[in-house]
Amino acid sequence: MKKLKLSGFDLGVIIAFAVITLLGGGAWWYLSGQLQAAQSDVKSAETEFVRYSVAKAGPDNIVVSPSNGKNLQANIELIKAQIDLLNTKLQPKENKLSSIDKEDPVEWKHDLDDEVHRLNAAAKVHGVIVPPNFYFGFSRYLSQSPNDEQTLVLKKQLVGVEELANILINAPVKEIRAVRRSYEEDPHAVGGAAPGSGAAPEADHLSSYALNAPANAYIAYPFEVEFETTSENFRPIINSLIQSPYLFVVRTLSVENSKLNSPMISELANLAGPPAGSVVGTAPGEVAATTTTKGPQFLFGDSTLKIKVRIDMIEWKAGNK
Q1: Phi and psi based region of residue 46 (left: phi greater than 0; alpha: psi -120 to 50; beta: remaining)
Q2: Which terminus of the chain has fewer CB atoms gathered within 10 Å of its CB, N or C?
């Protein structure tokens, strides 16, 4: 048995696994469902190691050599370190979800107003367009306050909206068109589906409810965001989602390009424009050099992307005391 070493490659694999977890529903299900079992298996393996390493006679009748004993113990410690690293990614210190508690509805409403004002001001500074009187998914509370019990989940959702809005504003995107959230404060219908209504749906209402995973391993709070940006500014958005202390899982993503078709080859001459003039070379065989009146033209890459993305914010419950 060879001792495993925690090399740069091992760390890279662990981190890559965590990143894939953020972006893939299947991989996320495996991690969320198996982390507790893995922790239990590590504890069992350690107990078995201690029992077998001291067995000299009896039903076990196993004697572990000192060198193999060291390798076994080192492998156990390595697995524990890998699991701890994943757990740190799932529950970093900067993640405030587990420490949130309900508060007085009037205080929560003041906090909401302050946060909405701050986000709108930041959007203006960064040149990000937002709809008039934009309330970032909480327009229901423009003229009312929740009750005491509702503030707990509303505070958690406000944390998620704040993080997502900051990511979009700092990118910056060109425009935030909508932020929708599930109305977790409402009574949940049987089966977990959001109740239907004869009235027209509110603009920032996402018709679904949070998912409570088996064994209360985690809660996934759904959000939907629509925005416009460029391909270059879309990259830092994805990077920021991965690097956030809050665990975001991209569930669906739709992209509409403002330019649906690339230029045809026959159109390239018109795009370039007529030549501004030519300079004939004096050396034998030298080709005339020409320039155009329009200068360099973009063939692709300067279009606007209209993006709608469904993102779940994960509140990791496993291991919480």
Answers
A1: alpha
A2: C
